[in-house]
Structures are given as structure tokens and as C-alpha cells.
Design brief:
The protein has about 180 residues and is an alpha/beta fold. Helix content is about 15%, strand content about 35%. A hairpin with a 4-residue loop joins strand 19 and strand 20. It is globular, with a radius of gyration of 16 Å.
């Protein structure tokens, strides 16, 4: 079993809440903060070497996801950090780069979210979509496609289902953490 790699970089050491689940195979590098009851699933890479990455409470970053940030430049003097709020669902194999996912955002499987993008709370980017730079998905909307475009408003049951998904991942992470601890004894 490969332990997660938690690597300081340029004088910044990742800060990970004790209750977070960090699966084997993950690489977490540099100026990263991960909140309580958040889960970072198998083989994710979170690399904050040129800006910072913040992940709030009870969010989940599913298997194989890569998260990076954007360097400062003449066009963006502060660059684009990656900020993920509380209760956010990030599907498997997602690429997040210099984007903001507000509290309760949902990003589907195999999506790409590029620099300067914002996905508001209770908004969803559908599986396989690519959100091009500086786009914003308003609360309550579903966007899909490559490049992603507005598809429709989300129903209340769909939004409620996203919230149930958050609770499921918090509990599932606890079960995985216990299974790994038992296997290492």
C-alpha cells in the first residue's frame, strides 16, 4: 500500500485537518489546506507550488482528480488559486486549474474546470464537460458539453440528491479510513 505523499514546497507545508481522509496514493504538495471531514480519494494530485489551494469542510475529491493553481502573470497579477468550499462534490478524474467551487457545488466525472472559473453553490457541471476560462455557472443551473453551456435549471430533488451525496462521502471516508488502519495493523 502506497502512503500518501505530503510534501512541503517553497517553505509551505500542507495543512490537513485531523478528521480528513487522505487515501493511499495521493500527492499533496505545497500551500494546501484541507478542512474537517473532507475526503481526498485514491491517487489524487493536489499541487500548490505556484499559488494556493484551499478545500473546505466535508468536501470530497474523488479518485484520480488533479488540482493545480495558476501563477501570477501580467493579465492576472495574483494568479488564480484554487478554492473549493464546504460540502462540494468533485467526481472521479476531474481536472481543476485555478478555479473556485463555492459551497455545495457539484463537478461531474472527467470534467475540466479552467482558470478563473466559478461554479456557484447548488450548481452542477455535467460529466465530461469542459468549462473554459473565466466562465461562471450560476446557482441552480446545470451546464454540460465541451465547451460547457447552460442546459437547464436544476430541480429541487436534484439539489437534495447532491446534498445526500456529501453526507454519503463523509461516512464512506470514515469506513475507508478504518479499513486502511485495520489493514496496516
Amino acid at each position: 500500500m502506497t502512503d500518501p505523499l505530503i510534501l512541503p514546497f517553497n517553505g509551505k507545508t500542507p495543512k490537513i485537518h485531523d478528521s480528513a481522509f487522505i487515501a493511499p496514493g495521493c500527492k499533496i504538495i505545497g500551500d494546501v489546506e484541507i478542512g474537517p471531514d473532507t475526503s481526498i480519494w485514491y491517487n489524487c494530485v493536489i499541487r500548490a507550488d505556484v499559488n494556493f489551494i484551499r478545500i473546505g469542510a466535508r468536501s470530497n475529491i474523488q479518485d484520480g482528480t488533479t488540482i493545480h493553481c495558476d501563477s501570477p502573470s501580467p493579465a492576472t497579477p495574483d494568479g488564480n488559486p484554487t478554492i473549493i468550499g464546504d460540502d462540494v462534490l468533485v467526481g472521479h478524474m476531474v481536472m481543476l486549474h485555478g478555479a473556485t467551487l463555492e459551497d455545495r457545488a457539484f463537478v461531474g466525472l472527467s470534467t475540466i474546470v479552467m482558470d478563473g472559473c466559478v461554479i456557484e453553490g447548488d450548481a452542477m457541471l455535467a460529466a465530461g464537460a469542459m468549462l473554459t476560462p473565466n466562465k461562471r455557472i450560476p446557482s441552480g443551473q446545470l451546464w454540460a458539453g465541451s465547451p460547457a453551456k447552460y442546459m437547464r435549471d436544476l430541480t429541487e430533488p436534484a439539489i437534495a440528491g447532491m446534498r445526500l451525496g456529501v453526507a454519503h462521502y463523509v461516512e464512506n471516508a470514515k469506513a475507508h479510513k478504518a479499513a486502511i488502519e485495520a489493514a496496516l495493523k
